[in-house]
Amino acid sequence: MTQLTLDDAQKLVDNWIKTKGVRYFNELTNMTLLVEEVGELATALRRVADDSRRPSPGGAAMALDEAIAAHRPALREELADLLAHLLRLANDTGIDLEQAYLDKMRLQLAAAPGGEMAHGN
User: Which CATH architecture has domain 6-115?
Assistant: First the structure.
């Protein structure tokens, strides 16, 4: 499997936009599209949760890992859509997402007791 950096992914999205005749949208439209994709991921995850609680024909609820496995194709697709829109938004605003992520992780690790991730920052 080929390893893809976030920088590579941003360049791939940029090349796709420039060669396929689509365009970058304004930041508001990109943000709206990103939120729409978050909603689609939430729907897929809700289906996982519902299936993990719903009794199967045998009477027992499907285990969470079974429910995830059953919905993995939809989860995979929605996560990929979400990443593509996030990459487009980063490109549109001139953000090097890979560097931004590394910078954020360094801050998180430095700020958290014991080097653990702090939540909500």
Answer: Orthogonal Bundle (1.10)
Split at pLDDT 50, 70, 90, the class of 96 is very high
Enter the DSSP assignment of 96.
Answer: -
- The token pair at 51 is 């299936």
Taking the model in full, what pTM does it have? 0.77
Q: Where are the domains of the chain?
A: 6-115
Looking at residue 65, its pLDDT comes to 86
Alpha-carbon span 70 to 100, nearest angstrom: 34
In tens, the pLDDT along 5-20 reads: 999 999 999 998 888 8
Asked if 86 and 13 touch (Cβ cutoff 8 Å), the reply is no
Q: What type of residue sits at position 34?
A: L
Which residue pairs, CB below 8 angstroms and at least 24 apart, start in 11-19? 13/84, 13/87, 13/88, 13/91, 14/91, 17/88, 17/91
List the beta bridge partners of residue 55: 61
